[in-house]
Design a protein that fits this description.
Bound molecules: adenosine monophosphate, zinc ion
Number of strands: 5
Order of helices and strands: HEEEHEE
Number of helices: 2
Distance between the termini: 33 Å
Helix content: 10-25%
Strand content: 15-25%
Shape: globular
Largest sheet: 5 strands, antiparallel
Length: about 120
């Protein structure tokens, strides 16, 4: 459920401080410590899931809720009209550095494509 050596589990448990913008029974969202855009929020499940490679059918609901929360936060940040992006890196080659799944919600500037 939770891994005491995992940074994002510790943030979810309030063991490590973060600028939390939303929390509920299943999810926590907080500002990225090194923002890559004017809006850069990370959305995580409270349960420890290391990477997308570890997803199982039982995670269907929480993964859906992560996206619905992203949609809510994007609206609250006023990003709907201009556009916004969700990113989830899977594995080292994709740039994953924290091995607890997280959606990056990015917006507030024009975002290039393709990503690096
Ligand atoms: P990724 O590289 O996709 O695994 O994303 C990990 C993200 O976590 C990076 O954008 C980091 O800047 C961010 N990050 C690392 N440590 C913290 C922290 N203590 N609080 C908030 N964000 C963090
Ligand atoms: Zn974790």
């Amino acid at each position: 459920m939770s891994d005491p050596s995992c940074l994002f589990c510790r943030i979810a448990a309030h063991d490590i401080p973060a600028d939390i913008v939303h929390e509920d029974q299943r999810l926590v969202a907080f500002h990225d410590i090194r923002p890559q855009a004017p809006t850069h929020v990370l959305i995580i499940p409270r349960d420890h899931i290391a990477t997308l490679n570890d997803l199982e059918p039982a995670h269907r609901e929480v993964v859906g809720e992560m996206h619905l929360l992203a949609r809510e936060l994007a609206r609250a940040e006023g990003l709907e009209e201009a556009g916004w992006r969700l990113v989830m890196n899977c594995g080292a080659a994709a740039g994953q550095t924290v091995f607890h799944i997280h959606l990056h919600l990015l917006g507030g500037r024009t975002l290039g494509w393709p990503p690096g």
